[in-house]
Amino acid sequence: MSSRLGRPELYTSYRQDMALFNTRAKQIGVLAILLLAILLPLQLEDDLLRIGFTGLVFAIGAIGLNIVTGYAGQVSLGHAFFVGVGAYTAAVMSGDPDGRSLGYGMDFAPLWMLGAGLAAALCGAIIAPIAARLRGLYLAIVTLGLVFIGEYFFAEWTSLSGGDQVGRDAAQPVLFGMELTRDGAYTEEQKLYWLALGTLVVMAVLARNLVRSRVGRAFAAVRDRDVAAGVMGVDLTRTKLVAFTVSSFYAGVAGSLLFALNGHFSPDKFGLLLSIQFIAMVLIGGAATISGAIMGAMLIASLPRIASELPALVPFLSSSATEHPNIFEFEQVMYGVLIIAFLLFEPRGLFGIWMRIRTYWKSFPFSY
Amino acid sequence: MTEFLTAASSGLGLGSIYALLALGFVIIYKSMRVISFAQPAFMMSGAILVSYLVPTVGFVLAVIIGTLGIALLALVVERIAIRPMVGKAVFVIAIITIGVDVVVRVVAGAFVGVDGRVMGDPWGLDATRIGDVTIAHRHLAAFVTAAVIVAALFAFFRFTSLGLAMRAAALDQEAAMAQGINVGTVFAASWALAGGLAAVAGVFAATGGTLDQNLWVIALAALPVIILGGLDSLGGAVVAGLLIGVSQEVVATYHRDLFPGLDSNIGYITPYVLMLLVLLVRPYGLFGTKEIERV
């Protein structure tokens, strides 16, 4: 036991090498982070919890995009479309049957989350055969087209979406008869944060298991060299289909939760900017890592808050939208700058920075 | 019929804008194998720059200075953000250009102001009537300008040594380098050309209305154009540009009869739908080179 404490990377069996968390240090670390994340809402203010909630939901979507883009190497700019499909499915399933917009009153949260995921996955599976024929940048542009076509039809289908600029009510998060959007013993923000955290943990563990399985290795093979993968017996079309479908499922679940805290959303939310934000999360966090996607999502979710704090520190930034330069412009510029800076200087993202720190201490004091 | 011809004439004007933008995309793609998502930003900043220059130097000179200015901007961007990444995965470079696009667009957008700007072009909303067909002068001007630029561009690739170098690098980069061609110059030239083309396209896109922060969306419609024409075909970009421009305007004109259930005009998404339909049949566009897989 004592030798193990001194050597946190020591594997003692093949079984351990194959395990989900293969070292003791990882097990303890993940457990500690999880415990911290669960206890956090008891300490933090509600406005910070809103950021936390958004980050957790973004993380679900980012893991999804990471599966198709990071692991399977299929560049998708269409993630916003699938998020939109999820958001509308969830809103319709849980919506008020007598309301202005379409609704069926099934307000049990896990039910509409699953429904949203499945609807988005179905859309992904429909798109996938087209996508599987295309490669690289052709695919990127086709998925970009999907965002525009989707945005148009969301806005047109007014009984579904409430119409352009107007919007509709988001899904009602109700869990075992408890309305999570009502303040009770705990506030709305706290309850929704825990709901999002629970969902993220389940989805993250599922994703981690998927990518270290046979399917996940097929993804990586297709990403690294699709011709070689095909020669080795990987069914390319089927692998891409699975990647797209699973990724869309994650996007759908993320979409179903995304506006639960606002309670209201409109079709213009699912535009190109949302797709770019997801790409930014994956790249800033680190492509082809689950924990990286979560880190990237947290950073992107907190950008608006960071930007809004800045006028106090940087005098020439204005908090008013009519003056230039203002914080809203700054926030958008930051997406661009962060993407460029990370790709130029730290291509492996936040996860790469963590890896460097870890390697430094692993070999300390012989860190050369 | 007159309705159709009117739509077709404005479609040719719009298509010329698409063609100019698409040529920029294709030139960069041919030299670097990358799609530059920064074109929309160059297009918008070009239009904004020209709209500021027009009152002082007049329209024609303003367009020339503006075009050169944006070409220079594209050159700087290529040098700072793209050149260090040469040799990395194309996807990574494409994403960097998205980052560049966001930054340049937001910075340029700050100069638009709340109410938008007016281009100050000499045509305004004038139109000529031939029979019953109305042809707006701005569409005519866009078409003629695009025709001149396309002819000049093809002459450039055909008769100048830099054009020859660019064609050689597009064909086989390593072989071109072995023959003493400076690939760095080729990259720089292709970005400058693309930036200049985008600026001209931006000027014509902004005529006939106010220039606002959403101008760049038109540039995104040039993406279906290059897919339709084939990523690596200059001629395809021109043909597909005009084709998509015309079909977009025609669909927009007959929107009420064809799609009675849809309120807002479907012309806006026509390029994307057309692209999807063509890709179902031809995954490499109409004129694109089919990638051959050898094992």
From TrEMBL, chain A:
User: Per the record, a Pfam family?
Assistant: BPD_transp_2
Keyword ATP-binding assigned: no
Any one GO molecular function term: branched-chain amino acid transmembrane transporter activity
Give the main location.
membrane
Coiled-coil-forming residues are none
Q: Which UniProt keywords apply?
A: Cell membrane, Membrane, Transmembrane, Transmembrane helix
Membrane-topology annotation of the record: Multi-pass membrane protein
Location(s), subcellular: Cell membrane
Q: Name one GO cellular component term.
A: plasma membrane
CDD domains, A to Z = TM_PBP1_LivM_like (cd06581)
Q: Where are the transmembrane segments?
A: 21-42, 48-68, 75-91, 111-130, 137-155, 192-211, 241-261, 273-301, 333-357
Entry's PANTHER family?
Answer: ABC TRANSPORTER PERMEASE PROTEIN (PTHR30482:SF5), HIGH-AFFINITY BRANCHED-CHAIN AMINO ACID TRANSPORT SYSTEM PERMEASE (PTHR30482)
Q: What is this protein called?
A: Branched-chain amino acid ABC transporter permease
From TrEMBL, chain B:
Task: Name the GO cellular-component terms.
Answer: plasma membrane
User: Which InterPro entries does the entry mention?
Assistant: ABC_transp_permease, BCAA_transport_permease
What topology does the record note for this protein and the membrane?
Multi-pass membrane protein
Is Metal-binding one of the keywords? no
Q: Which residue windows are transmembrane per the record?
A: 6-27, 59-77, 89-114, 140-159, 180-204, 216-245, 266-285
Q: Which CDD domains match?
A: TM_PBP1_LivH_like (cd06582)
State the UniProt keywords alphabetically: Amino-acid transport, Cell membrane, Membrane, Transmembrane, Transmembrane helix, Transport
Coiled-coil annotated residue ranges, if any: none
Q: Which GO terms describe its biological process?
A: amino acid transport
One Pfam entry for this protein is BPD_transp_2
* Cellular location(s): Cell membrane
Q: Does the keyword Transmembrane helix apply?
A: yes
| Gene Ontology terms, MF aspect | transmembrane transporter activity
Q: Which family does it belong to?
A: Belongs to the binding-protein-dependent transport system permease family. LivHM subfamily.
**What is the official name of this protein in its record?**
Branched-chain amino acid ABC transporter permease
Taxonomic lineage per UniProt? Bacteria, Bacillati, Actinomycetota, Actinomycetes, Propionibacteriales
